[in-house]
Amino acid sequence: MQKYEQKYEYEGKSKTVRGGTDEGTVVISFKDTATAFNGEKKEELSGKGILNAAISNHIFEYLAKNGIKTHMISVIDQTSILAKKAEIIPVEVIIRNIGAGGFSKKYGVEEGFALKNIVIEFCLKSDSLGDPMMNESQITALGIALPDELSLMVKTALKINDLLRSLFEKASIKLVDFKLEFGRCEGEIILCDEISPDSCRLWDSHTDKKLDKDVFRRGLGDVLSGYAEVLERLKRA
After folding, report:
1. Which CATH superfamily is domain 8-84 in?
2. How far apart are CA 129 and CA 44, in angstroms?
3. For the segment 4-38, what is each residue's pLDDT rounded down to a tens digit?
4. I need a surface site. Which of 90, 124, 155, 190 has the fewest CB within 10 A?
5. Does pTM surpass 0.70?
6. Are the CB atoms for 156 and 163 separated by under 8 Å?
7. Where are the strands (E) in 72-220, listed by range?
8. Strands 91-99, 188-192: parallel, antiparallel or unpaired by DSSP?
């Protein structure tokens, strides 16, 4: 059985990261913690880590099979994966297919608004600053990412969107919007972090029932039943 270093390199709101089998790897473990509004709302939901790990792993394996370079190496157990160690680029790439959430509030459009085109947004990863929105020139001006890196991140995000919309459509789920994180690893830009109901808005294709973290954010009921439903539908898709 492989041994892993126990020293945590990072502990976030929903995951922990510690040293892996060598200097080039890390172990990422999903926690049961649910948070919203930059940690202002927080609760422990038993089993959430297992569900998020299973969903994210399923999606990352699907993306890898379809040509997306990711940090994932292998599944260790129900809540942990072995991943490539990457320098995380502190910008979230947000893809919006349907108007919802903060977009609807900011621009005064009804949730479910059919956007005329895909919207691409960027947010600086900074809880202390409230994750402010950024544009491409601000990102490059601050040296957060080079122009060619940013271009590749956008191109990859759009390809991921096409792949995920196809996958979720088979599961009778609308992919409303989602956020992605990328990192630098061995001279390449790769997909990192997770893709789960914590980082996506997912609605039932027929009823628009919410199957994502908005259930927790808005106090709409049983959070984990939606996550479990997403996992089961993806397995059948």
Report:
1. Phosphorylase Kinase; domain 1 (3.30.200.20)
2. 25
3. 555 557 888 899 999 998 889 999 999 999 999 87
4. 155
5. yes
6. no
7. 72-75, 80-84, 87-88, 91-99, 113-124, 133-134, 173-185, 188-192, 200-204
8. unpaired
